[in-house]
Design a protein that fits this description.
Layout: H1 2-22, H2 26-30, H3 46-55, H4 59-63, H5 73-93, H6 99-108, H7 140-151, H8 154-161, H9 164-175, H10 188-205, H11 211-223
Keywords: Signal
Length: about 220
């Protein structure tokens, strides 16, 4: 019995180690660019961020800069949700070897853990103006679109998809490379992170019967 338990323990340790190695890409560390890593990307490169942090201890503070997201209540909500997701991913990856660095990163995270979702019509996600609750600029729309499919529920997705024209434009922008990197040689970091995020989104919505989400999943799968 003891021998079986020991074997199971060794297998579990080896699996965890192999998983960690599989999720580490040295080329991401070598090709790191501040412009390509934001609060949506950081949770999908924990192992690489730990290595980058050893050389650049300000990286997390630059990515999770609360002041950048203070424009509206909704912006701040997005920030808090992403920071909390990042925190949970850090906890998942914490072990004896990286505990010291991860604990230091966690201590630098500035966000409100008591997250309250604003009462707002998600169909307004496509609006862009200085007083709009979502974005000021057209490019902001993809951030909020991606945030929503990563963290929101079916109600918000249905509200977003109620504007079929805008939803369709977004799917085309993903399919043809405007908002999803297709050239691995040109932008390696973005290429890999886009696919890590897409994998998460596919898994999250695989059993959803919303037609628009299934169309999105089909596009992501075709690009993987």
């Amino acid at each position: 019995m003891k021998t079986k338990l020991l074997i199971l323990f060794v297998l579990a340790v080896n699996f965890s180690f192999c998983q960690a190695v599989a999720d580490y890409d040295k080329k991401i560390v070598d090709n790191y660019s501040r412009d390509e890593v934001g609060i949506l990307e950081a949770p999908f490169m924990i192992n690489e961020l730990i290595e980058i942090y050893k050389k650049d201890s300000l990286i997390v503070k630059r990515i999770f800069n609360r002041e950048v997201f203070n424009r509206t209540q909704y912006n701040l909500y997005c920030y808090n949700v992403c920071a909390d997701f990042f925190y949970k991913k850090l906890i998942e990856r914490r072990n004896d070897k990286n505990k010291k660095i991860i604990d230091k990163i966690i201590s630098e995270l500035d966000y409100d853990r008591n997250i309250v979702k604003p009462q707002i019509d998600w169909s307004r996600i496509w609006e862009t103006c200085l007083t709009c609750p979502f974005g000021e600029y057209p490019d902001d729309r993809f951030f909020f679109f991606q945030f929503s499919i990563m963290f929101m529920g079916e109600l918000e997705i249905k509200q977003m998809a109620s504007d079929g024209e805008q939803w369709g434009y977004m799917l085309e922008d993903i399919k043809y490379g405007e908002f999803f990197e297709l050239n691995k040689e040109k932008k390696y970091l973005k290429y890999v992170l886009d696919r890590r995020k897409a994998k998460y989104i596919i898994e999250r919505w695989k059993d959803c019967d919303i037609k628009e989400m299934q169309e999105l999943i089909a596009i992501y799968k075709s690009l993987m």
